[in-house]
Amino acid sequence: MQSKDLLQLTEKFGSPIYVYDAEKIQSQYNRLTKAFSKVDKLRINYAMKALSNVAILELLKEMGAGLDTVSIQEVLLGLHAGYAPEKIFYTPNGVSLEEIEEVNAMGVQINIDNLSILEQFGTKHPNVPVCIRINPHVMAGGNTNISVGHIDSKFGISIHQLPHLVRIVENTKMNIVGIHMHTGSDILDIEVFLYAAEILFDAAKNFKDLEFLDFGSGFKVPYKKDDIETDIEELGKKLSKRFKAFCLEYGKELTLIFEPGKFLVSEAGFFLAKVNVVKQTTSTVFAGIDSGFNHLIRPMLYGSQHHIENISHPKGKERFYSVVGYICETDTFANNRRISEIKEGDILCFRNAGAYCFSMASNYNSRYKPAEVLWLNGEGHLIRAHERFEDLLLNQIPLPVTTAAI
Ligand SMILES: *Cc1c(COP(=O)(O)O)cnc(C)c1O
What we know:
Blueprint: H1 3-13, E1 17-21, H2 22-35, E2 42-47, H3 54-63, E3 66-69, H4 72-80, E4 88-90, H5 97-105, E5 109-112, H6 115-124, E6 129-135, E7 157-158, H7 162-172, E8 175-180, H8 190-204, E9 212-214, H9 232-250, E10 255-258, H10 262-265, E11 269-280, E12 285-289, H11 298-302, E13 308-310, E14 318-324, E15 332-340, E16 347-350, E17 371-376, E18 379-384, H12 389-393
Helix pairs in contact: 2-3, 2-9, 6-7, 8-9
The protein binds pyridoxal-5'-phosphate.
């Protein structure tokens, strides 16, 4: 997508808005399937928590993707978008037995990540095909907020509990069809990923009726210049070979599953906001935009560095800015960032705004959530309208008497 298109869309639909480039999502999907084209049975389940607009779900469905969901509400959205139940995986953490049973009754593949629920579910429903989530305790990436395979992580059944896990499966005679891991969000080193995969292969040998192995995700995409990115092609080469060898050893052609979120949608997304005020203080120059962590929280939550460009005046002299929001909290998007000279009214474009951006937006400060636009075949389609005042009142119930009368 070009800056002039983004500017035009901002003029047409108003700021702040999210814009997603369909072509980029498609090319990332194709890149992944191509990297693993040697695997006979490959399945890509899009981790929809990254970006859950129904139009995006439909786009990926058309490409042949399945879905990875983490809540019953995501399952409902997936069904609404037209996914067949058997194309949906449900990989929750810390949810109730009742929710798992409800999702299972919809025909969706469930994935259980603790021994307590496994034993209860297996006792009640021994014939249901179940996937189990293993925690291989492999540290991927450095940020503990987004690394979920390490020893203190709440995710998955520890690989050290395998003996107990096997005993539960034998006692309940439950039907284990898949093994899953998801080690975290930043695979910087393919060897680390392959090491975790070996742990999964080892665990898999304990189960005789497997149909698939699910390696989760954690594919890293570049956020800033010179960022390391997961070498998908290299991973594809190495893991495909190892996977095929494992299938031979196991005696059955298994399905290899990935569930990428960020890899598919991060770089396809642009967040566009208008500069309300340029404020010179004694120590810095603030560019205050018509947004805040209510719309894009990753910089404040994870310290993520989203590239920011002044697309209204891209050729101006570069200056240092602190880009901040309008929320009554410290909501700093960037500190001491070199940006082409900013004037009030300019549109700033944030890159990598496809994954975990809109989907984490809130109404804090009673602000409206932004609109979303899908750029498809050279045209912008509004796929979510800006919120209105009525949306803030939705579900609020006035007291039958005024509080003054109580
Ligand atoms: C969030 C999540 C993913 C997707 O992770 P990305 O880093 O966005 O690719 C995959 N699997 C599970 C179980 C998740 O919770």
